[in-house]
Design goal:
Elements: H1 7-17, H2 25-29, E1 34-37, H3 41-50, E2 59-62, H4 69-76, E3 81-86, E4 97-101, H5 107-119
Parallel strand pairs: 1-2, 2-3
Antiparallel strand pairs: 3-4
Length: 122
């Protein structure tokens, strides 16, 4: 499932990837274990407001530039957050990603984050 604040990208993503892309981001986050925030900094506030009713088992993996762990936790009202910072060569499979997690993130969630980042090749 994909969530997007842009109606045109929702339609395009739904068609291209053949996945559900609800207009309401709370529906996109309701039943999933891993939420990936990959938005531009100027869109992060709205996305965090839409996703601030998360269950403790849910993990948020953020690639939002310039967003600190404390800002993410506060904006999401959620303690289990991983912040990932890929470098530009990651786009061509030649880079690396540095990531860190909040102390409340458990070992299983950290392993999930690492597996997701490996699957994305970033």
């Amino acid at each position: 499932m994909i969530g997007d604040i842009n109606p045109m990208r929702r339609k395009s993503s739904s068609r291209e990837y053949r996945v559900s892309v609800p207009a309401d981001n709370t529906k996109a986050t309701a039943k999933v274990g891993l939420i990936v925030l990959a938005v531009r900094p100027q869109g992060s506030r709205q996305v965090m407001e839409d996703a601030n009713d998360l269950a403790p088992r849910q993990l948020v993996l953020s690639a939002v530039a310039g967003a600190s762990l404390s800002n993410l936790c506060e904006g999401l009202n959620h303690p289990c957050v991983v912040r990932a910072v890929p470098n530009l060569p990651a786009q061509i499979g030649e880079g690396m990603t540095v990531w860190t997690a909040t102390p409340q993130t458990n070992q299983g969630q950290k392993e999930l984050a690492q597996a997701a980042l490996a699957a994305l090749s970033i």
